[in-house]
Description:
With 383 residues, the protein is an alpha+beta fold.
Amino acid sequence: DAMSLGLPAIAAEAALHGEPAPALEPPVQVRLMRFEGATELALEIEGTWRMLDESGTARAEGSGLRGVLRMDPTGIQIGPYLSGLDRLVLATDGDGALRIADERYDGALEVGMLREGARATGLSLVLHLPLEDYVLGVVCGEMATTAHSVASALRAQAVAARSYALWKLRQRGGALRDTSVDQVFRGLDWHTAAAREAVASTRGIVLVWEDRLLPAFFHADCGGATADAAKLGFVPRSIGALSGSRDPGCESTPGWREIVAPERLDAVARALNLGTWLREIHALDVDAFGRMLRTRLLGEKEHFDGPSEETRVRLSLPSVMWTSARTQADGGLLVEGRGHGHGVGLCQIGAKRRARVGEDWRAILAHYYPGATLRSLTADLLD
Length: 383
């Protein structure tokens, strides 16, 4: 697990008599998966910095640093400094003080050694930064922020990203990964004025369902209707705000056509202990809009019934809204379909279309999360 830096929660606004408690800005930890396992990385620090051990004791400090972050047999090496530590934190002053390889970041950087038994195998990097800085990095990672007339879509995305991150941290704790496994997060070189405005104008606002943080899932293209999260297996019980809704404007978005190579099909069969090759794929349950909810994978020896989203990921396909699937002469599978992503919650293409015709960000969120409430983040939501 990531180290705790003891960063204080920051009030988003002063509490006034008769108003709700002030919104909070808790720290967020982000695991930089693009660097996971590296043994050597270019590192640059602008301004003053301190190297802290796990107890928070400063082991070294300086002003400015340009060198290499590497795995050394004695521990982590930062430029000329041999720390002798398997885990440390680089605390910096100022904004955008860190450059790792080709990307700049805010926040404090925790560096750890990955090990297999006694053998060191690489480095693990975790950023510690305030919630709103994290949300800004997600908005820039998850949605194109330079398009015209999509300000309300970016605001809706900011609220969804903030809500989802806090929900996931409450469920699991630890660090969020900077990939689509959690949310795509990018550094300062990706930040735009439009993204900063979207985050600032929705600062501290989250989506709530039944007085709890809503798992505000989002995806690229719903293909004409969003999905019921419970029926897809994303949540254990039905949540009205994630029950799905029609989005007719997305029915005309271009479909897709993909070929799944026979080697991948064989690998899936072996991974699921179905035999050496995959014979057939059947839809066991389909929603009213043609999205598969559960599928059966039939191998030469056994079959596997499971969520369609798991099948999509295993086959690396854009969505589970298949319109046709045909076996090829070489044993591959030609699949055609609509939509992109799991289909739950906010549809990014739909949100941008709604923004362009003047829909407010609150209305966009109300469409994709019907019945959810907008609230300032307060301590009771984090309990």
